[in-house]
Amino acid sequence: MKIAIVGSPGAGKSTLARQLGDILKIEVVHLDWYFWQQGWEGIPQEDWIKFQQHILQTVKKWIIDGTYLNTSDIRLREADTIIFLDMSRWLCLSRVIKRHFVRLFLFYFGWSLPDFPSECKDRLNWRYIKKVFWTFPEKDRKDLVRKITYFTGKAPEDLENSTFPDGTLGEITSFVPSLAFALMTTSIWALPMEGFPFPMRKVRKDFSTFAELFHRKSPEPVLIHLRSKSEVKEFVKFCRRHRKIEQQPAKVKQSD
């Protein structure tokens, strides 16, 4: 399997990558860990491209999390499965703010998460908040959908909910405490407020498309389009159940 996980910052790409890596026993590559160097200096574009090409050529099975639109074609072209975490801006921003304080706590004690370079002290400014809450939903998502459409052969209308999902009432409500944390160190007035109020998003209940990860019907890359926390949880549960079923015949043979 060659799985590319893409989506907005804070969508849960790294968490899902670790979960799938543990379930499927496949090497996980967190792009953020390799791209950022001390002082938040990104590696040069040419070296970044060469690094990704090296991974794709030397690793037979992989799970790569990270969007990086400028070089996403390299990964999307080689992937046999593309997982699009299409989460609401409210949920993503809430996670980004919470993650910021977790990373600062770990950094203080000299620890770090496996998807984040230990040399970088996490930062949260309005430029990044704007990217999560406005730039990605209104611009970057459209570019990402075009790329996914091109590499999977799925027409834009096949991607359920063609506009960026703007959250359930629970996601919007849970965002308020996180926003309070942000207000301690930043100014709310820098946040673009155009387009309010946002429409509520309907939660999907049909998860039949998850089976395509294991049972392919065409040579084209499989697209798994996840739009809420509940869908991600159901997807992970499905993968665990399917993995257990696959391993059962092997255990029976060993006992015989």
What would your notes on this structure say?
It is a single chain. With 256 residues, the chain is an alpha/beta fold. It has a single domain, classed as Rossmann fold (3-Layer(aba) Sandwich). 50% of the residues lie in helices and 11% in strands. The chain is built from eight helices and seven strands; from the N terminus they run βαβαββαβαβαααβα. The strands form two sheets. It has a five-stranded parallel sheet, with helices on both faces. A two-stranded antiparallel ribbon has the order 3-4. A hairpin with a 3-residue loop joins β3 and β4. α5 packs across α6. It is globular and about 45 Å long. About 8% of the residues have low confidence.
